[in-house]
From TrEMBL, chains A, B:
One of its GO terms (molecular function) is carbonate dehydratase activity. CDD domains: beta_CA_cladeA. This is Carbonic anhydrase. SUPFAM superfamilies: beta-carbonic anhydrase, cab. Keywords: Lyase, Metal-binding, Zinc. It comes from Mytilinidion resinicola. The keyword Transmembrane does not apply. Zn(2+) binds at residues 103, 105, 159, 162. Residues 16-37 are annotated as: Disordered. PROSITE patterns: PROK_CO2_ANHYDRASE_1 (PS00704).
Amino acid sequence: MCKPRLIPSSVLRHIKPRPAAPSPRFTPLSTTPAPASTTQIRPLASWWSSKMPPSDVAKHLQADHDHIFENNRKWAAEQKVKNPAFFDKLSSGQEPDYLWIGCSDSRVPAEQITGLGPGECFIHRNIANMVPNTDLNVMSVVNYAVNHLHVKHIIVCGHYGCGGVKAALTPQDLGILNPWLRNIRDVYRLYETELDAIEDAEKRCDRVVELNVHEQCRNIIKTAAVQQSYAQNQYPIVHGWVFDMKDGLLKDLNIDFVKVLGQIQKIYNLTG
Amino acid sequence: MCKPRLIPSSVLRHIKPRPAAPSPRFTPLSTTPAPASTTQIRPLASWWSSKMPPSDVAKHLQADHDHIFENNRKWAAEQKVKNPAFFDKLSSGQEPDYLWIGCSDSRVPAEQITGLGPGECFIHRNIANMVPNTDLNVMSVVNYAVNHLHVKHIIVCGHYGCGGVKAALTPQDLGILNPWLRNIRDVYRLYETELDAIEDAEKRCDRVVELNVHEQCRNIIKTAAVQQSYAQNQYPIVHGWVFDMKDGLLKDLNIDFVKVLGQIQKIYNLTG
């Protein structure tokens, strides 16, 4: 069932010397040189080099693949040892209390930083933890989580140093990313006076991260699903948090859910 | 920075006796009764009961909140003990080799089942691991991961018993979820003869899960970002996997990336 496969021979056949990798149009999160590898964090330089012979590339691609299947077998075996009924329970259904809407960034692994296990948290992750009201993807997630899974908490979690937010604060054309990042620029516009007054660029960016979380929480509260469920059940409650990679801690933005709901409903009331 | 807050008094004020929870319009993943709680998996019945007095609801909401912040402080402290430089490295940047597109289902925690740590895997999760070509959310994720992060592998991972797939195979009106689930019905239509021939409903559903992963891999291969990057760099490679909750193992669908790329490019070639 889980037998690792070789990288297909059709891939190997096509591997040939390549030109140097194209320069990224923006550096997503940092220009700091990669530190040395540790067993804790994968080295930032990855294994790839433009000078690497094709056979080595193939070996690394295969090793990447095998690495995950090996990890997976180990994980599954460990769960069975800890609790022989683990997978029977897991496959019988889910009733998570939390919906997490976070960033796709590889350094914000939702379950690890919250200590939540399988079955506890329904997850949506996209670039910069956005909740645009016309986005069918995230709107379907919110609808499903509230109306069908009856989650008690919805968490929007941003993170300082967010590449999406940095990109949105940079005057450049990023093609298909432009309309997505536009939503972040729209947040800036709402708080233009406050943000313009922050002289330090990094601090200004971090404040946009926080304000963006506030606004995405508002976007969730504006939905019919949340307003109607709360009116009937007193849940879900919407929380805004920010993850700080410098110390690994979550910061609670202390959003007063009921107060914001009241403000929202002056214009966006959908409970009638 | 991470001080847990109380559930706002404005929430507590509004908590009052509630009517019984509305019946879900469909049971997302199983109708099997919840098994007893263990320390491994949160009890399926959650803490909520329609007969619970409001003060108890407030206590549970607060406990849910505190639980996560407690877990988070513990996790952060553990990382520092294991590697004092952990967060310095983490905050210096990301260069993940993998993009994971998986289901939002709480029982498929991507990093846990693959053993990947912070910084290793860029993540997008939505209902039924879909990659619709008009969806700006997932298309932005693919574009960012390929063109800016230069990921080497893109994994689409479905799972047997998927609630989204089950819902799409049920003749019912699910409101805003209809257009999202329509994409799964479109997959059924492509393989109608094969699927109609499977008499057992669960087996048919599981086969739709697999075929859906195949088709979402194709959708990724159809993008300009993937075709152009592969032509230049021989990466990323696209993989289709399915997670089986009954044993915790990943199953490789052995998609031959180069073969599929060739098939796709007869019609969808965007490398010119």
